[in-house]
Every structure is written in structure tokens, then in C-alpha cells.
From TrEMBL:
Organism annotation: Paractinoplanes rishiriensis
Keyword list, A-Z: Membrane, Transmembrane, Transmembrane helix
Chain ranges passing through the membrane: 14-37, 43-63, 84-103, 109-127
Full protein name: Uncharacterized protein
Domain of life: Bacteria
Taxonomic path: Bacteria, Bacillati, Actinomycetota, Actinomycetes, Micromonosporales
């Protein structure tokens, strides 16, 4: 909030919280379904995955739109770091997928992709901030 622009409006905050509740609710519903049901119907799993994904996408869209309202250097650094982290993460996942097709490597799990993306963004953010000092 260094630029003087409020990060999220009241409506945006409400939408972010609603998106998080829907996201966590969809994931929790899927976990409960797996734990409680002997056989999980494909339609039920797909519906819960769609609900959770919708909540996450709503949250991401609202937060992303808020980030684009920032001005100057803060916006530039965030956009550049996000772009770099995206390409680094996608390149790493693509490379692993190609190697996986030919070699017997461990299955790539989503938490590791997320961790790699978070580390990539942190390194890119630090590099971009250092560049503009």
C-alpha cells in the first residue's frame, strides 16, 4: 500500500473471502466424500473439483485485478516477477514431463509444483527488486 491505493475494496474483500470459502469447501467436500464413501462417483468428484476450482479462480481474478491497480515500480516488479515465475514453473513442469515420458522418475505431485512456483516467484521478486534499486 505504499502507492496510496487501497489494496482491496470492501466488495473485493468480500469476494476474496467468498472465493476462499468456496475453494476450501470444495476441497473439504472432496476429502469427506473420499473418507466416507466406499466408491466415489466420478460426477461427484468432478463437481466438487469444479466448485473448488471456481472458488480459487474467483479469488485469483479479484486479487489479480487489485494488483493491476497499483502504480509505478511496485506494479512493474509484481508483474515481472509473476511472469518470470510462470515461465520458470511451466518450463520446469514441461521438462519434467518430457523426461518422465522416457525415464522412470517419481510421479510429479501438485504440492511440489506449487512449492516450485512459490520459490520461483520469491526468487524472481527479489531479482526484480534488486534490479530497480
Amino acid at each position: 500500500m505504499a502507492s496510496g491505493v487501497r489494496e482491496l475494496t470492501g466488495r473485493e474483500s468480500l469476494l476474496v473471502w467468498a472465493g476462499v470459502v468456496v475453494w476450501v469447501g470444495g476441497i473439504s467436500g472432496a476429502v469427506l466424500l473420499v473418507v466416507l464413501a466406499e466408491a466415489v462417483p466420478t460426477w461427484a468428484a468432478a463437481t466438487l473439483a469444479a466448485v473448488a476450482t471456481g472458488g480459487l479462480m474467483l479469488t485469483a481474478a479479484v486479487v489479480g485485478r487489485s494488483a493491476l491497480r497499483r502504480d509505478g515500480l511496485e506494479r512493474t516488479v509484481n508483474v515481472e516477477a509473476s511472469a518470470l515465475a510462470f515461465w520458470i514453473t511451466m518450463g520446469g513442469v514441461l521438462t519434467y514431463g518430457i523426461v518422465d515420458a522416457f525415464a522412470d522418475v517419481p510421479r510429479l505431485l501438485a504440492p511440489w509444483v506449487l512449492f516450485f512456483g512459490l520459490v520461483s516467484w520469491s526468487v524472481a521478486q527479489a531479482a526484480r527488486l534488486n534490479r530497480y534499486r
